Amino acid sequence: MTKPPGSLGVLEDVAAQLAGTAGACPPPLPEPAVVAVFAGDHGVHAQGVTPWPQEVTAQMVANLAGGGAVVNAFAAQLGAEVVVVDVGVATPVGPAAGLLERTVRRGTADLSVGPAMTLAEARQAVEVGIEVATTLAAGHGCLVTGDMGIGNTTASAALVCAFTGAAPAAATGRGTGIDDPTLARKVEVVTRAVARVPGRPATPEAALAALAELGGLEHAALAGFVLGAAAARVPVLLDGVIAGAAALVAAALCPAALEHALAGHTSAEPGHGLALHALGLRPLLGLDLRLGEGTGALLSLPLVASAARALRDVATFDSAGVTEK
Amino acid sequence: MTKPPGSLGVLEDVAAQLAGTAGACPPPLPEPAVVAVFAGDHGVHAQGVTPWPQEVTAQMVANLAGGGAVVNAFAAQLGAEVVVVDVGVATPVGPAAGLLERTVRRGTADLSVGPAMTLAEARQAVEVGIEVATTLAAGHGCLVTGDMGIGNTTASAALVCAFTGAAPAAATGRGTGIDDPTLARKVEVVTRAVARVPGRPATPEAALAALAELGGLEHAALAGFVLGAAAARVPVLLDGVIAGAAALVAAALCPAALEHALAGHTSAEPGHGLALHALGLRPLLGLDLRLGEGTGALLSLPLVASAARALRDVATFDSAGVTEK
């Protein structure tokens, strides 16, 4: 290519990874892309870890399905599709175009007092993610993780602590923007929950058990989504701390799966950086986003597509008649 | 908007700036976008500051005009146009589609031994940039800076030192990837040149004099391009260290002009970070790019467009029926 070696920085690694995932160089463009927004509710909401009412999850699922959320605006701008997957919203949302009803249970139990879900439910939610990824991979060149669930940064922090060994105070953040007393309560809740998980999960069985103990249904589905994308050899762009926590689960279930994942961004939530560090993923964007929905991952799509495009289109020194140094 | 306050991070500042530039909220989408690649040669090439032969500038201008460079691939992917402006290439490139011939002189003089150009030439090159920006602003919603010129990181480092007070060893980098002896020579060249500029330019006259003493013709044109974009109230996305150095000149000529500029990325070249810090601009991307051509700025375009799109499209809590906390 007519450029100095290494001059495209991180995008050279992205291009190489895409070629590896596809088993072809140049790799296909990651198009069309689709964001799968996995939605679920969290029993830990009862502990007062967020000022938002739980009903907002269902309302936002309707907003996402109706095209009114930020991720819909970004998707329209960037030429991507959005599908919403109800994997565990507490109240029925009702059928809507672009909404897949895959309810495993109507919200998790309160992770601060006991297991968030059963092993069977965790497994079923993982399988939902695999199924959605497999179906979408058949018609799309890139999968993007999205999430919606009031209370899900609490479950994410707990998963990050369990899978990385991080301290709850270091991994727990302000989510949508909570005050100091709420943050203190949130750290205390995470501390109590993580204490029930003995050591970092070293086997797939232990990973599934920790997921059931601490995670959300959308975390489970997202872990499956990452596995399904890898199995289909389609690149998957990870969003924020919810996806990062889910990717830790996916890596514990099948380490090789992460070879096909890219970290779209690093969010303002401290547990996200810890998760990415543990996964060895360098985020493409750092814009202090803390919205979720898949917004940060989706914004990285043009970078990934441009990296692939450069491999395909750029002239060589020979073909362009440019002198090499 | 149906999102927690502040949750779009840096993009909220971008959206507010776009609204300010347009004098309208929501602002228009920054479309269509066009990259103007200003090309020039540098007499300092004679000092051995780069391993690339000077003829590569003209060859790459032909490659850019022919659509074979990386910025062309990125532009095709991202829906932008590319125009190339010969403002000072050492050898005639010849007419080509998409190439504007605005030659002020065929390359600068060697800045290590005397002024790179006359005051009149510097002014004329600034005016080229203003003219190109004014013309392009009439049919485009976003202007993107691009540059091509073997040796131009040496002139950039000299400008950064003169306009920020930075030490030559701190501001001078490896450009396309030079070895240690070449870097030492480059620092020495920059040190000698900057010593001829007495203090940081405090007036427009002093800024033009420093530009003529140390800059390249493409730096002068890019400074004018930033001024022209501001006058036309069209946002301008700045690329790497060449644009950063030119923006320092533009800020010294007219500080208010920078209110309409966005830093697309921060490059691997150390002088770029120093320039952005002095300008108070936070870069949107940090991908360790060091290619120039406008590649880094262009990659930030989807972020800027998405920020504008969110202001336009996203539902409110009321319209979506979502409960506020």
Descriptive overview:
Chains A, B: This is Nicotinate-nucleotide--dimethylbenzimidazole phosphoribosyltransferase. Chains A, B: Pathway: Nucleoside biosynthesis; alpha-ribazole biosynthesis; alpha-ribazole from 5,6-dimethylbenzimidazole: step 1/2. Chains A, B: The active site is at 293 (proton acceptor). Chains A, B: GO terms for molecular function: nicotinate-nucleotide-dimethylbenzimidazole phosphoribosyltransferase activity. 2 copies of one chain form a homodimer. Chain A is α/β, with parallel strands linked by helices. Chain A has a single domain (28-314), classed as Rossmann fold, CATH 3.40.50.10210. Chain A has helices spanning 10-22, 55-65, 70-78, 119-137, 152-164, 168-171, 180-194, 204-214, 217-232, 241-253, 270-279, 295-313, 317-320; strands at 33-40, 81-88, 99-101, 142-148, 236-238, 261-263. A 6-stranded parallel β-sheet of chain A has the order 3-2-1-4-5-6, sandwiched between helices. The first copy, chain A, is globular and about 70 Å long. The interface between A and B is large, with 62 and 62 residues.
